[in-house]
UniProtKB/TrEMBL annotation, chain A:
GO terms for molecular function: ATP binding; ATP hydrolysis activity. Residues 16-246 form the ABC transporter domain. It comes from Bradyrhizobium cytisi. InterPro entries: AAA+_ATPase (IPR003593), ABC_transporter-like_ATP-bd (IPR003439), ABC_transporter-like_CS (IPR017871), ABC_transporter_ATP-bind (IPR050166), P-loop_NTPase (IPR027417). Keywords: ATP-binding, Cell membrane, Membrane, Nucleotide-binding, Translocase, Transport. The lineage of its organism: Bacteria, Pseudomonadati, Pseudomonadota, Alphaproteobacteria, Hyphomicrobiales. SMART domains: AAA (SM00382). This is ABC transporter ATP-binding protein.
From TrEMBL, chain B:
The keyword Transmembrane applies. The chain crosses the membrane at residues 23-45, 57-76, 109-129, 141-161, 167-188, 209-239, 259-284. Its main location: membrane. This is ABC transporter permease subunit. It comes from Bradyrhizobium cytisi.
Length: 262, 300
């Protein structure tokens, strides 16, 4: 409903361009090609999902986008400038929550603001982010006192406080139970609509990709190449029972090589 | 209240027994009466902790009684080397001035050397854990000099330093600094790279990575180093006092032995034990405060 409005003033999201990005690891002296000439153009405020088999190189690609590693070949650009180092405008929610065990949930969420010296002025945001992920009562808990799903939500809150221009999500909802997961998916969509950042989501879950993203990129087995691209222009909130949704899901399963199941 | 009273009631006979026994052995009376007074005081302030302690107090009373028996009563142990407990009490009362002086001197020396060593060790450890260049230069030195017992430097240190006090500080700092350096370093080097990745993507500066990520993550290791350093520093303290410094408990020990004043020696030993265990306890308290986040992660 509000999607159209949010899209129009999507000024704060940043663009992302991948030009023939290839990456290789060294595994015991043997070169291990992980990414194979990936080219991708993500527009301002777009929500793109990456779908691919386990171990194909999705997390590797996200690390390159974050600026944590540099590709062996090709170039990554944001707003036309090459990505050389991490930047707080590109925030990652890693597959593994990796909260700091010596900090409480509150100060874990505060990490980004503290690192940039914004804690004093933007303190209120931490409460907001905690409320958003449903962890208000756990602000003073230590990470080992949280469940896996709660830790993941805390990691999500830690990213969201920073008001990113590009939000990079690596299976952020992987450990959540199906009910919380559905709620968090809805939260993510409304958050994205409100804040109009660009989002890049990695997921194993075909339905999740279709529920959230405007475009789903299907990657091949390692080394990952772009195998297919499915555009989903349905308005939000989307419904799994919708015939068009079912059709897109079938199409994606086909691309993933699972057509027998359907 | 009634429950507490009835609960500690069974303790009474055993303490009483120690008391009457002590009374019966006239020469042991002073020591045991003192002990009882302390017990009674404890009992009125904190019933609960006393209850938990009572098995230990009972054992202690037994030990004192046995000691009393084999020394003063039965004379099973050769006397000048094994004085009865009351002799130690006598020393504590007669010679308390000199003993207090010794405790003070030892504590001052230890504290100065330990803090200096711990601070330098910590900074060095962080430096080599963090910076490749610092590691390149400091690591070989550490490898070469570190394993050498600090006491091996003793002759050189007393010769090079202007006073035996500063030489001892140097030795204690050395003994403390080595384990603190090595463990801080291994702690910093062992920080998960994912911790840095998180902070870097959130806009952390190098400074932030060092002070807010590397150091807190390395703290459990640092404390292992601090404990080891404290143990080392005690050893060096006593040796340094015995051989060079003309003050402190180590020196008192040496002096008492020279005069064959064995009771004085035991008194000094006892004080030293209290000093050392007190400091260890203090360090444990500090760790509990700083690393309370670990409580659910490791066996505390
Ligand atoms: N630092 C590294 N050194 C060597 N090989 C690596 C490294 N990181 C990843 N790889 C390899 O790269 C490949 C892709 O890893 P990546 O983590 O990107 O997979 P993924 O697509 O995210 O998988 P999943 O969906 O299971 O998370 C894997 O085969 C992995 O073994
Ligand atoms: Mg992955």
């Amino acid at each position: 409903m509000v999607a159209a409005i949010a899209r129009d003033d999507a000024v704060r999201g940043s663009t992302l361009t991948l030009r023939e990005v290839s990456h290789r690891f060294d595994l015991e002296g043997q070169p291990l090609p992980v990414l194979d000439r990936i080219s991708l153009q993500v527009g301002r405020g777009e929500f793109v999902a990456l779908l691919g088999p386990s171990g194909c190189g999705k997390s590797t690609l996200l690390r390159l986008v974050a600026g944590l590693d540099t590709p062996t070949a090709g170039a990554l650009l944001t707003e036309g400038r090459e990505i050389e180092a991490p930047d707080p405008s590109r925030v990652v929610v890693f597959q593994d929550p990796t909260l700091y065990p010596w900090r409480t949930v509150w100060s874990n969420v505060a990490l980004g603001l503290e690192a940039r010296g914004l804690l004093r002025t933007h303190r209120g945001r931490i409460e907001d982010a905690l409320r958003l992920v449903g962890l208000t009562g756990f602000a003073n808990a230590y990470p080992h006192q949280l469940s896996g799903g709660m830790a993941q939500r805390a990691a999500l809150a830690r990213a969201l406080v920073n008001d990113p221009k590009l939000l990079i999500l690596d299976e952020p909802l992987g450990q959540l139970d199906s009910l919380t997961r559905i709620a968090m998916q809805a939260e993510l969509v409304s958050l994205w609509q409100r804040s109009s950042f660009t989002a890049l989501l990695v997921t194993h879950d075909v339905e999740e990709a279709l529920l959230l993203a405007g475009r789903v990129i299907v990657l091949s087995d390692r080394p990952a190449r772009i195998k297919a691209e499915v555009v989903n222009s349905q308005p939000y909130p989307r419904h799994r029972g919708n015939p068009h949704f079912v059709e897109l899901r079938r199409e994606l399963f086909e691309h993933l090589g699972l057509d027998e199941a359907w | 209240m009634v429950a507490a009273l009835t609960a500690f009631w069974p303790d009474r006979p055993e303490s009483d027994w120690a008391y009457t026994d002590g009374f019966a052995i006239a020469c042991g009376a002073l020591a045991l009466a003192l002990a009882l007074a302390v017990f009674a005081a404890v009992r009125f302030v904190a019933f609960r902790s006393f209850q938990r302690l009572s098995p230990w107090l009972f054992a202690l009373a037994l030990f004192l009684a046995a000691w009393e028996a084999v020394t003063a009563k039965l004379g099973l142990l050769p006397l000048p080397f094994f004085p009865p407990p009351q002799a130690i009490v006598e020393v504590a009362i007669d010679d308390w001035g000199r003993l207090a002086e010794g405790v003070f001197a030892s504590a001052r020396l230890l504290a100065t050397g330990y803090f200096l060593g711990a601070a330098i060790g910590f900074v060095t450890g962080v430096a080599i854990g963090w910076s490749q260049r610092a590691g390149y230069w400091i690591h070989p030195v550490l490898r070469f000099i570190g394993p050498l017992p600090a006491t091996a430097w003793l002759p050189l240190a007393f010769f090079v330093f202007p006073s035996s006090f500063s030489a001892s500080i140097f030795l204690i700092a050395l003994a403390t600094g080595f384990p603190v350096t090595v463990l801080t370093w291994s702690g910093v080097a062992g920080v998960k790279s994912a911790y840095y990745d998180i902070a870097r993507t959130l806009g952390a500066t190098q400074r932030f990575l060092v002070f807010k990520v590397a150091i807190p993550a390395a703290m459990p290791h640092v404390f292992v180093g601090l404990f080891m350093g404290l143990g080392n520093s005690f050893a060096v303290l006593v040796v340094a006092e015995m051989l060079g410094v003309k003050a402190g408990l180590g020196w008192y020990l040496q002096w008492a032995q020279g005069w064959a004043a064995y009771a004085n020696m035991y008194a000094a030993l006892l004080l030293m034990a209290f000093l050392c265990s007190g400091l260890i306890t203090l360090l444990f308290r500090l760790r509990d405060r700083l690393l309370s986040w670990q409580k659910g992660l490791v066996r505390w």
